[in-house]
Amino acid sequence: MALIVAVFAFVFLPRLVFAAEPINIGIIAEQGTLVGDSIVNGAKLAADQINAKGGIDGRPIKLFIYDDHMRATDAVQAFQRAVYDHHVVAVIGSWISEVALALEPWAARLHTIYNYRRS
Q1: Is-contact 103 75, C-beta < 8 A?
Q2: 69 and 20 in contact (C-beta within 8 Å)?
Q3: Is 70 left (phi over 0), alpha (psi -120 to 50) or beta?
Q4: Does residue 39 contact residue 65 with C-beta atoms inside 8 Å?
Q5: Residue 49's pLDDT band (cuts 50, 70, 90)
Q6: How far is Cα 107 from Cα 48, in angstroms, rounded to an integer?
Q7: What residues does 63 pair with on adjacent strands?
Q8: How many CB atoms neighbour CB 60 within 10 A?
Q9: Full DSSP string of 71-107
Q10: Spatial CA neighbour of 39 closest among 89, 99, 97, 92
Q11: The pLDDT of residue 80 is above 60
Q12: Among the four residues 3, 8, 28, 114, which has the most C-beta atoms within 10 Å?
């Protein structure tokens, strides 16, 4: 009996434990503007709806929101922090072209999905 329990724990327990880990997604936008607020609010709404239905494969979505203050340097720092500190798997980004273009090389360097809307 102990052998069966050990095999069950070895095979199925890691899947059950890891299935509860959230999917981290970063949001980088200018929160002082209508468009920037819309990016953040839209992401929150989508995450809430997905999480209400059980997440993705049982994993909830967790958002990390950063204000880029319409500056490329702040956006790059936020992108690096999102990847290194919060371990995001994707970033939804700023609507300002200069900021978005500054983040593209970082997305490639850090092998992180980056999606944005240019103005």
Answers
A1: yes
A2: no
A3: left
A4: no
A5: very high
A6: 26
A7: 25
A8: 15
A9: -HHHHHHHHHHHHHTT--SEEE--S-HHHHHHHHHHH
A10: 92
A11: yes
A12: 28
C-beta neighbour count of 10 within 10 angstroms? 9
SS3 state of residue 63: strand
Cα-Cα end-to-end distance for the chain: 64
Strands (E), 55-95: 61-67, 90-92
The pLDDT tens digits of the residues spanning 3-37 come to: 454 455 555 655 554 457 999 999 999 988 998 99
Residue 31 is encoded by which pair of tokens? 């929160």
Is residue 82 within 8 Å of residue 67, measured between CB atoms? no
pLDDT of residue 38: 92
> What distance in Å separates the CA atoms of residue 84 and residue 82, rounded to the nearest whole number?
6
Pairing of strands 113-115, 23-29: unpaired
Q: How far is CA 33 from CA 3, 36, 58, in A?
A: 60, 5, 34
Calpha distance 4→119 (Å, rounded): 59
